[in-house]
Amino acid sequence: MDTVDTMDTTGLVRVLQSLTGTKDKWDDLNLTDLHESDIERYSSDDDGGNVSDGDDKENAKPENLEEASAAAPPDETAERMKQLLAAKAKQAEAERAQRAQRQVAMLESIQFNVPDLVKGAMSPAGEVFCPWKLVRGYPEMYCGKVNGERALPYFTTQALHEHRVWDLYYVYDFHNNKSEPVLFVPTSQFEHLLDVINAKLDVHFTVPIGPPASKFKMTFGPGSMPRPRYLGRSASEDDFLDLTDDVPPFNPHDSLDQTTGKDERAKFHAMFAAIRALEKKKNGGENDKKKKKGGSNSRKQKRSRVTRAAQRVAWGRSIKRAQRYLGLREAGPQGADKVLDLEKPMTAAPERSALFVCIDVEAYERDNQVVTEVGVATLDTTKLVGVAPGEGGKNWFGLVEARHIIVKENTWAKNEKYLNGCPDKFGFGQSEILSQEDIPALLEEIIDGASSLPNPSNDDNGGGGDSPVEHRPVVLVFHDADSDIRFLGSIGYNVFRAANVIDIVDTTEMYRYIRRAPNQASLSAVLAYLGIESWNLHNGGNDAVYTLRTMVGLAVEKRIMVRGGVEGGNGCVAYADFTPYGEDEEGWESDEADDGGEPERPCPDLSDVPFTPLHRL
């Protein structure tokens, strides 16, 4: 039986005193250590007795468990107290479970920055890594028999990749003729996994202390020792399998022959000797290999390839529609036939005179349910007429207008540990501080109605300046649309209800399509690829402006690639990009006779976006 919870012991002492008819007997009792056996022992002592204060109390109907216990004869004392203890234990367990749920929700809301690295790029010096084999083998090697069995369900292949991201890195093992790359993940991500499991199971799993800790916290360098190279971000089991099936070949710059000093070589060999020793342990990644080779998984991977191919086709079509909205190409099968001269205004009119509206939402790094900033940037395509885009579309950057909203209730939430937040460094105007409940109405004003244009058909009929207005077509722009749409929903604005939103452009998808990247890149990485200068990222207003600029830059980039037959973009090609991508090539090639089709109005996942904004009730 669990011990009595200490949060409400006064009433329990009063009941015990009433049951035995004495006060002193219970004064020195440590209720934290009270068990059923203590109840029986204390209640059966000779100096205990039944309390009787007269006929009125004897005949009165007890109103609760304490009164019932006080009115009970001595031989019922133990049973009554067992019930009271059981009730208190149940209450304590329920409260513990609620605390655990809150802690798990907080931990699972933490987001890790996407590394500013391309595939095959070397990790920064000083990064701390954990071998993937050690992650997989942790329950059996370090948790003991009882706790290991409890932890094991959280370390299956499916569980490790469900609602969890891993930034994967690799180093080639020189003892294995450079043929077998060893997989690593940041130690901080593994420790975060342990934190989540600890909250769920009420245990205390940690990275071991002492000599074993070095296996979990590996650093490479200093000097010219080879460091792990970035493989990509895995957000699902399929991502993990795709990435690990397509590790770039050994980079000659990583040769140990070029390292300096015996100490560096000795350290490197010692680290890999420790990793190879893990292979003799149980588990250690065997399940990952089985998943790759299993027949049922092969069928699943085939379906996944079909899905990914369709997804890539959709990304390419979205880029073409964005080009049409900007006037960079015309609708129809010959829409991209004309040579694009960036130093002259576009000959095609921006389709539908659309208004681009880019939204960036910043949330607290320790609890993503706390929204701290909302940035909004707009680009009116009617202002592009007569303006040459210039190299990379930079002449249009100055036409972007922006607003930066700081959420009044959450100014206390500062991003410092995982992100370098800078809410006070908006570079495109004055920041505004608004209550969270006022932000949805502001977004409605910008997106839903304030940007209307006169109906030209009414002007033709002599309607003049008083002619009715129509909803202006709006194209929303995001860098990772799913994330920002969820954040907007959490503060009460549902983009799917805006009648004039005709399309959504996601710059992460544009970049992945143009670069054939296996996973999404950070905003700073895309800006660097395009050569766009930026300052004070992770400010909502700044990020909205830079995201809109990357949309323009990527649309121009892709248009030039098509006309020039260039596959590598601006020449900034990572080492890994010179190697084949493997057999999974479907969907990357685009039929230029396909102009992107009709606008694709976004449809919500009703299970994922269930809001009813308060201001619309």
UniProtKB/TrEMBL annotation:
Name of the protein described by the UniProt record: QDE-2-interacting protein
Record field: compositional bias (Basic residues): 290-306
Ranges of biased composition (kind: Acidic residues): 45-56, 583-597
Domain Gfd2/YDR514C-like C-terminal residue range list: 356-553
MF terms in GO: nucleic acid binding
Organism: Echria macrotheca
Record-linked SUPFAM superfamilies: Ribonuclease H-like
Source taxon at top rank: Eukaryota
Region of interest (Disordered), residue spans: 35-78, 242-262, 279-311, 583-617
GO cellular component: nucleus
Bias (Basic and acidic residues) ranges: 35-44, 279-289
Gene3D superfamilies associated with the record: Ribonuclease H-like superfamily/Ribonuclease H
